[in-house]
Request: fold
Amino acid sequence: MKKHLNIPSRRLWAGVIVCLIIGLMIAGCRRREPEVIDVPTLAVLPSATPTSTFTRTPFPTWTFTYTPSLTPSLTPSNTLTPSLTWTRSYTHTLTYTPTYTYTLTYTLTPTRTYTPSNTVFPTLTPSNTWTPSHTPTDTPSPTRPTRFPTLIRATETVFGGASPTATVAAGPTIQFFTANAASVLSNTPVLLSWGSDGDSAIIEQINPGGAVLQSIQVGPTGQYSILPTTTGGTGNQAIFRLVVTKNGVTANSTPVTVGIACSATWFFGNQYAPPGTGCPAAVGATGSGAFQRFERGFMIYTNANGVNRICAAQDGGLYVCSTNGWDGSTINTSAAPSGRFIPGQMFNWMYYNTLGIGGTWNALLGWGIMDVAPGSRTLQYEGTVGGNNPFYLDTADGAVIRFSGGDSGTWTRIR
Reply:
């Protein structure tokens, strides 16, 4: 039997064969020395010096390079974003308050009058149906005729019947008068409901002192949506009443009070708001302005909310406002006394081109005791913006002024 070589022997022989092949390759690549031949020449050539150079040729090496490949994958992402939604809900509650009306009935009760008469034959005919409840005790004088008791009987017959009753026309009655809410935000209507027995009715908003602020003609029964006014000393409340008329007689309902929740605060602090002040129409508006104090008053300018107004106030409490007409450059440079200042900028225009209440501004205010102080001014209205509603402005020296409203009126310092 043939014996097979084991695996290590095979590897050994393979290594020997490879070494032999490598040796033959190196020998074949070795440089041979050239044969020296004597050549006759006039010059002597240098002998060649053999040089042996061994070059190692490595076996090739296989290098595997791995190139990463990115495979996109879709990863679903479910992200829930909560969204808060504010929902305002209103609860309408109708409260029926019965109102009791007392009707007075007037009864005329005649008084018996005994009138002595010297007439012997009375002209009144006695009634046979009359039954006296008492016996007259009057003692006739000697001059009275003997038939005097008959006269008395006849007289009592006239006045002794049923007492006449005066008929008085019935007055109005009010069954109920209510509001749809106990309190509302400022500038929000209030729904009033009522029922009454009358010919006509009026809804009135009054202030705490009873003064009528607004009046609306309505029917004896129904509903009406009314926007409360927050001026006229109402404070943070609105008071309503129903006035009903019937047959010339008038009746008032019990007043209904609705609280007013202001949607904005006063820029100068709610604690400084005068008593009875209504709600701000909006947050305070700030714009560029100027301020200058005079010997007997001050001038203030603001363009907040685009009003572009100048207000000149006298120490006596009166003020006048005007639209700014200054061209931005023209100045009257009349010399002021030592230690005093001429009106500056837009105040110079108003000072010399308009009149105050009762005279020139020079006569009313005098000269400036400070130069113009430019800076931001804050404006805020009471109730609603514009019109004759009161408004507030701050000054450069930290004061806050309440102007009673409109182009002219009275002013007070509240801070």
Q: What stands out?
A: The chain has a mean pLDDT of 76.
